[in-house]
Automatic annotation (TrEMBL):
<dbReference type="InterPro" id="IPR013762">
    <property type="entry name" value="Integrase-like_cat_sf"/>
</dbReference>
<keyword id="KW-0229">DNA integration</keyword>
<dbReference type="GO" id="GO:0003677">
    <property type="term" value="F:DNA binding"/>
</dbReference>
<dbReference type="InterPro" id="IPR004107">
    <property type="entry name" value="Integrase_SAM-like_N"/>
</dbReference>
<dbReference type="InterPro" id="IPR044068">
    <property type="entry name" value="CB"/>
</dbReference>
<dbReference type="InterPro" id="IPR010998">
    <property type="entry name" value="Integrase_recombinase_N"/>
</dbReference>
<comment type="similarity">
    <text>Belongs to the 'phage' integrase family.</text>
</comment>
<feature type="domain" description="Tyr recombinase">
    <location>
        <begin position="106"/>
        <end position="285"/>
    </location>
</feature>
<dbReference type="GO" id="GO:0015074">
    <property type="term" value="P:DNA integration"/>
</dbReference>
<dbReference type="Pfam" id="PF00589">
    <property type="entry name" value="Phage_integrase"/>
</dbReference>
<keyword id="KW-0238">DNA-binding</keyword>
<feature type="domain" description="Core-binding (CB)">
    <location>
        <begin position="8"/>
        <end position="89"/>
    </location>
</feature>
<protein>
    <submittedName>
        <fullName>Putative transposase for insertion sequence element</fullName>
    </submittedName>
</protein>
<keyword id="KW-0233">DNA recombination</keyword>
<dbReference type="Pfam" id="PF13495">
    <property type="entry name" value="Phage_int_SAM_4"/>
</dbReference>
<dbReference type="GO" id="GO:0006310">
    <property type="term" value="P:DNA recombination"/>
</dbReference>
<dbReference type="InterPro" id="IPR050090">
    <property type="entry name" value="Tyrosine_recombinase_XerCD"/>
</dbReference>
Length: 301
């Protein structure tokens, strides 16, 4: 029987699944995650996944919940196994029993403009200051920041080209004059250190042949927040949230923000209307209007 295994070379079932993902244009990162989830299921099952029953899948999901797996892990496994059983094995009957976990809706943490300035100023070195500046100044996802190349910076048109963003979509992000100057400062320093090369990574990792890791960027944000005395729970994505919220508070059209963020649906961008304090403050309370009418004044709003 064909089996997905951790051994190399790839076994027939794993290879077939990889080919199916490739033909459907799944990103390499997504392919790796799907294979990893299927491996875990195979290890739990103790036999090839193509021999699993509906009860096996149910018990695996129960096992994940009892083990304290996060909603992200559970839903990632659901996506991977749905692909395996729906596309590769053509067993929709098994895929139907998989249940995704509803994530609790939490208010997104957002920095004030003053806090964002303090955090960037406290970044550990010009490289991280420039990288975090891109996250806040252009609203890029942490993975998009990490995978930028020198050629992606278009100073003539004042754009940042984002290739293969979420969903495999390419887009242009904004490049402000201040961000361009910050990137040029890093370019000069990177050249001096001998880690910056034409057509290479804009933010090299420990080796100039590899991009900086998202983990390094997370660590840099947390270190900067501590130095800046920011007590909010922050990460690189907080800078992206702050970018969108601050644009909304500047009365930038939400459809423009949608394009800049690379959202496929306006509903995703609309989430930021819930965290924009200035949007809330701009609304006149019905109590204020009522009080004004009682006192014979012109109602606000």
């Amino acid at each position: 029987m064909a089996t997905i295994s951790t051994d190399t070379p790839a076994k027939p079932l794993r290879q077939r699944m990889q080919h199916d993902m490739m033909m459907r244009g799944l990103l390499p990162r997504t392919q790796e995650q799907y294979i990893r989830h299927v491996r875990r299921f195979a290890a739990y099952l103790g036999r090839p996944p193509d021999m699993a029953t509906a009860e096996d899948l149910r018990n695996f999901q129960i096992h994940q919940h009892e083990s304290g797996a996060s909603a992200g892990t559970i839903n990632g496994a659901v996506s991977a196994l749905r692909f395996l059983y729906t596309v590769t094995l053509r067993r929709r009957d098994l895929a139907r029993g998989l249940v995704a976990m509803r994530r609790p809706h939490k208010m997104r943490e957002v920095l004030s403009v003053e806090e964002a300035a303090r955090l960037l100023e406290a970044a550990p070195g010009i490289k991280y200051k420039a990288a975090l500046g891109v996250a806040y100044g252009a609203g890029l996802r942490v993975s998009e920041v990490a995978h930028l190349k020198v050629d992606d910076i278009d100073s003539t048109r004042m754009l940042i080209r984002v290739e293969q963003g979420k969903g495999g979509r390419d887009r242009n992000a904004m490049l402000s004059p201040q961000l361009l100057e910050l990137l040029r400062m890093w370019w000069r320093e990177g050249k001096r250190r001998g880690v910056m090369f034409p057509h290479g990574w804009l933010f090299p990792g420990r080796s100039y042949t590899d991009p900086i890791s998202t983990r390094q960027l997370h660590r840099a944000v947390q270190e900067a927040a501590e130095v800046a005395g920011i007590r909010k729970r922050v990460g690189p994505h907080t800078l992206r949230h702050s970018f969108a919220t601050h644009l909304l508070e500047q009365d930038v059209d939400i459809r423009v923000i949608q394009v800049l963020l690379g959202h496929a649906k306006i509903d995703t961008t609309a989430i930021y209307t819930k965290v924009s304090t200035r949007t809330i403050q701009a609304v006149a309370s019905p109590l204020d209007r009522l009080t004004a009418l009682i006192e014979g004044k012109t109602p606000p709003g």
